[in-house]
Structures are given as structure tokens and as C-alpha cells.
Amino acid sequence: MSVTETTTGPAAKDRYTISEVAALTGLTAHTLRWYERIGLMPHVDRSHTGQRRFTRRDLDWLAFVGKLRLTGMPVADMVRYAELVRAGEHTHAERQALLESTRRDVLNRIAELQDTLAVLDFKITHYGKLSGGTPT
Length: 136
Hints:
It is a single chain. By secondary structure, the protein is mostly helical. The protein has helices at about 5-10, 20-25, 30-40, 55-70, 75-85, 90-130; strands at about 45, 50-55. Helices cover about 70% and strands about 5% of the residues. A two-stranded antiparallel sheet has the order 1-2. Strand 1 (about 45) and strand 2 (about 50-55) form a beta hairpin. The model has no long low-confidence stretch (mean pLDDT about 90).
């Protein structure tokens, strides 16, 4: 189940503790605090006792950051993107450029992986023929 599904269903809440967010996202509390400290997370509200209170919007942001991490985007670029979001709508073009650059990197990595997969398939077929098995 994705964070979005978890936070939009009947059991959805308005505020989440850091431990709840850690359980929902798979991130550690330490990582969540670090994200906040380096500016990757927007300001997280606090309760009257100082406890962090994450919103559904925070969870959606963390899901997006998780996707950016999967792209291999450097943390500095993710922080830059977060800064641009906070700066406002006039940064749309710069955000788009950053995401387009990341997309090109992902497409290049996909091409490299496809080439690697072709080599593996060739070798597997080769060894299958040598061992008398049925090629896959």
C-alpha cells in the first residue's frame, strides 16, 4: 500500500507523529529529522509539547522525495528542488528543467540496464545450449 493510499482512506488522519510517519514511509525518524534539518522537508508543525506533527501533504511530499531518490537524484538537487517549491510559482521553469535533467539521467540508466540485460540474456542462452538445457 502506498503512502497516498494509506493517508486518503477511511483511516486517514489529519496529523501524524514522527513514529507514525516512519512506519508509513519506511524512513527512520533520524532520516526524517535530517530531511527537515537540510531543508528537504518543509517546516513541520509542532504540537504544544514540541512534538512534530506531519500532515497528509507532508506524507505526499515524502512519497515524491522517495521517487526522486529512486531516480538517483543527488540530495543537493532534491534540496534545491524543495527550495524552488518553497520560493513559489515563479520557479516553475527552473523546477521543470531540474526534473527534465533527472529524466534524461533516468533514461540513460534505463538504456544501460537494457544493454546489460541483453548481455545477461545472451550468456544465459549460451550456457543453456552448452548444458543441453532449453534456452530461456
